[in-house]
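Forwarding the complex inputs:
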Amino acid sequence: MLRLLRADLYRAVRFKPFYILLACNAALAVAVVCYNYDFYRKGLADAFDVLWAGLGGGASFLGILSAILIGLFVGSDFSGGARGKLVVACGRAAFYLSKLAVGSLLCVLVYLSFHLFTFALAGPWYGWGGHTLREALLSFAMGIGIVLAYAAIHTSIAMFTRSTVATVLAGILLALLVLAASSMLYSPLQNGCIEFDPATGGMAEVECGWPEWVRALARFFLYWAPSAQSSLFGHGDPIPYALCMALSASWVLLSAVVGPLFFRKVSLK
Amino acid sequence: MEYVLRTNVLSKMYKKSYAVDEVSMCVPRGEIYGFVGRNGAGKTTLMRLVCGLINKTSGEYELFGRKDSDRGIAAARRRVGAVIEAPSLYPEMTAWQNLTEQCLVLGIDPKKAVPAALEYVGLTDTGKKKVRHFSLGMRQRLGIAVAMVGSPDFLILDEPTNGLDPQGIVGIRELLLRLNRERGVTVLISSHILGELSKLATCYGFIERGRMVKEITAAQLEAACRKSIALSVSSTEKLPYILERGLNISDFRILSDTEAEIYGEVNIGDLSMALHAGGVRLLRLHEKDEDLESYFLNLVGGED
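Prediction (whole assembly, two chains):
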């Protein structure tokens, strides 16, 4: 597997789309910092808002970036030299895990290119407002977990479909669908439901009438799905960092264990 | 005799039909095995099975004495180089980079292996040119270079001369003969260009509709290839009667109103006299040897 890792890293270093996405995300960071300047002057924003934008900003942008990067990196391997490697490589599991490892590394580097500006530019310039540095660092670490979860999911999709287009489309669709679902789930859980009140003749906020098991399932979804995790930051409620990071790690574990088992069955033509 | 590859009733089924149907074949060490079959006969599928790119439905195969179900099959596959259909190359990388990539997978030092491989296939002057700008012939040669950069003992080549010009075809042929002669590399090669294959192969396997029809050495093929006599006559209307009744010849074929072929040994004098006696004028006559193409067509029965 070490040989496959070296080969994939050799290709990754020469993979132009990676540098393009790295630059794009860094440029986005600068744009976000500049965009928040006016809000900062009015006392409405600080570096934490820039940090949140770098986690997807409630638009699952990280997920979309990851889908594009993994889709291109893994998809181009299957349309390139993958067959030649698979004939002489150490087996399908090693091939899969190598892609997972290198793909994850590329995604983390793209993520870091944004936050280089968060900590080097926005932090000293805007300050962290009411947030502690500990909170900022935990959020940053949680972001790495989100990125690794995205990388694991998209690697699985890419390895099964062997198609760049399918991976990118599936990634974008999943990210947006989960984001929409999390919005619909979060509001009733935290704020209750808006219903018609016959007593007043108008709409009133009432406690969510979902059974406890449904609430537990909804909360689990919000903490488990990477797109849903990134949207938690936009609500301002306390975030269970350790739980979220552990659940992100479960995606990586799932992909690493189950992925090779399915990839063994895939026919490569 | 030592065999590099042996398959035993190996089968691959897609939906309800067998692409490879209980194929048992043996590729002897040091030979160039010509794999002959029509489009869709199962050649590429069998090669993919042996390379581990697809999973079998039933049966087994042995590569360098290791069964496909053994854990050691991965080690056996490291001694294999393959080009299945299109060469497995990264279009955005140069020839050097593609070979380096393969060297890293194999765990060999690219600094020595890459220049040697490029020189062997005649691609030393490609420099920084990316593979997507290569001609088809260059890609085929680079594909072979990638397959052989790890000094494999067994090369599996699926129609490596497809789309090449005559010069390119000759180049590939000479390259493979050199590999076989100088390095003792065993080659399993499939090709539609049977004339070209006959200049290369030392043994043959004929596959039709997923089933192995026959395995034969080049020497056996030469012995088996039938001689024939091609006739041009004034009219072939009475020819069957003359040949069967007059000369006791039953192995012949009427090609047109004036052309026919007679197989096997024929006394030309007796033939000429019999035709004259039957009122058929003999216009032209020449001897033909059956080649690989006609042998194959006779074996599988020609077009459906």
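The CA atoms of residues 231 and 285 of chain B lie 5 Å apart.
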